[in-house]
Design a protein that fits this description.
single chain; about 45% strand
């Protein structure tokens, strides 16, 4: 084995340990970027991330780009990292296997796009020139997010690219971008949503002049957290629905924002936003999973991805389990013990107007109720 190949293999091994952390990364969300240098700037961006119970994040981005010069054509692109810790085969057509319903509309006109497999030299860098897949191939003895050139014994990471031609008129141009992508997960976390913000600095102004971030839990409830040092310029607020938040100091990670939303929207707005870091939204079980003193239900999620693996069967209280779906919807318990218990859970937000109903219970919640009821009868 060549020394170069050996060193690259060792580096890749360390990268796997550092990035994966016993997790699966399906894909990252990302900004639209210019493929080449341009004098066009990002005047405004409204980024909405809607977290569903189906294992997907729905992305809606409203851009306003400022073209200070004459009308021009610009090549634009969107990059998506290859899946990590999965056994998916390389899609030679360049379409990412975990991105769906990808659309771009410019000034009211839908844009057509092409796909390609491209080199991804770094987390925020992509060379949009397509890889020659006759030369670079995924080999059985290396990670599937890497490709190898057998002749030179070289390896490199790859990404999937979406690219298109955009005709900019003078002044403001409005671009609407939508897609869905799979939530990632790992040990100690039911879901995580990686979203790259830093590529926005590839535009001429190297910032977003007016930026709004909205994180939504539409027709459901979500309990999540993220490092908020990037958003120090302004405060988050609950813009819609029911929710609450507080700051938490995490060992080795600094200050994070923990959020509980029920059919609500968390919103942040600032001007002259310079995204010097990327966003990673993580399910809040990461706060409790390895805490031996965490009580049953410290974290709860309605989706099928959620498993209460961190609690031993002997510790499970079947009555608490059966009532978790009701507590998650804000039911005010008349039973003194249940009322006291759920009011100690940080995510619990009582709603006296909610009438107990199981009409929107998910399949996983019905399974939880059946299993808890069965155990209670033993």
């Amino acid at each position: 084995m060549k020394i170069r190949w050996f060193l690259l293999s060792v580096l890749c091994l360390f990268a796997v340990v550092a990035k994966g952390n016993d997790g699966v990364v399906f894909v990252n969300g990302n900004q639209l970027v210019p493929i080449k240098e341009t004098d066009i700037s990002v005047a405004k961006e409204v980024l909405t991330i809607n977290i569903g119970d189906d294992g997907f994040a729905n992305i809606d981005v409203q851009y306003e780009f400022m073209n200070h010069g004459k009308a021009k054509t610009v090549e634009m692109g969107f990059e998506a990292d290859a899946p990590y810790n999965l056994e998916d085969k390389l899609n030679k057509e360049g379409k990412h296997p975990y991105i769906y319903d990808f659309t771009v509309t410019m000034n009211g006109t839908p844009l057509t796009y092409k796909n390609a497999v491209v080199n991804a030299p770094g987390i925020d860098e992509v060379d949009f020139a397509p890889i020659d897949l006759n030369q670079w191939k995924v080999a059985d003895d290396i990670a599937l997010h890497l490709v190898r050139d057998a002749k030179t014994d070289s390896i490199m990471p790859f990404a999937y690219a979406y690219y298109f031609t955009a005709s900019f008129k003078e002044g403001i141009n409005k671009v609407h971008h939508t897609y869905r992508y799979r939530l990632s997960y790992g040990v100690g976390r039911t879901f995580e949503i990686p979203y790259w913000l830093k590529p926005a600095m590839r535009w001429a102004n190297r910032q977003i002049d007016d930026f709004t971030l909205r994180i939504k839990a539409e027709n459901t409830a979500k309990h999540f957290c993220f490092a908020d040092s990037l958003f120090a310029a302004a405060s988050f607020k609950i813009a819609e629905g029911t929710g609450k938040m507080h700051k938490v100091n995490r060992p080795y990670d600094g200050e994070w924002l923990e959020v509980s939303l029920r059919n609500g929207t968390l919103e942040w707005h600032s001007t002259n936003f310079v995204p010097r870091a990327n966003l990673l939204i993580v399910s809040a079980d990461v706060m409790y999973s390895f805490n031996e003193q965490a009580v049953l239900g410290s974290f709860y999620d309605r989706s099928d991805q959620y498993r209460m693996w961190q609690f031993d069967d002997k510790k499970k209280d079947t009555r608490i389990l059966r009532n978790l779906p009701y507590a998650h919807r804000g039911y005010v318990f008349k039973n003194k013990r249940l009322n006291t218990y759920f009011n100690k859970l940080w995510w619990y937000m009582p709603d006296a107007s909610w009438k107990a109903s199981s009409s929107d219970f998910t399949p996983r919640e019905w399974k939880l109720i059946r299993e808890a009821t069965k155990k209670r009868k033993r």
